[in-house]
Amino acid sequence: MSLATQTPALVVPAEVLALAAKQGVTTYLPAVLEMTQRIFPNASLSVLVEDDPEIANDRHIVVRVQVEDLDVPQALDARYQWHRELFACCPAPLVSVFRVGLELTE
User: Fold this and answer.
1) Other CB atoms closer than 10 Å to residue 78's CB: what's the count?
2) Alpha-carbon torsion (41, 72, 74, 53), positive or negative
3) Among 72, 91, 2, 75, which residue's Cα sits nearest to residue 39?
4) pTM (predicted TM-score)
């Protein structure tokens, strides 16, 4: 018998959905979020739009990950894995729309 854990549904704000539509990544957003939940199974996730402070009109969809059960080397490995797997979730020309924000908490 296996035990299944249920994670709460991630709320995707309207601003994120609007940017996803504008950037042509709406169909890839669910796969990116699922991949993030798989790589960081014990994390608290949120998704938001972030403006680049140095480049005008440069906006990104950021999946913010807050996790407390990883040390720094594990977190770096997971972050590298996220970036590698992002290319499996969406076409290479569109990966720049997505970012991951990783925060280690105590």
Assistant:
1) 18
2) positive
3) 75
4) 0.87
Position of tokens 């991630």? 10
Span 61-91, pLDDT tens digits = 999 999 998 999 999 999 999 999 999 999 9
Helices (H), the chain: 14-23, 29-39, 72-89
Predicted confidence at residue 103, as pLDDT, reads 95
Closest Cα to residue 23, out of 90, 97, 95, 93? 97
Residue 49 · residue 95 · CB < 8 Å: no
Token pair in block for residue 82: 């996220």
| pLDDT value of position 8 | 57
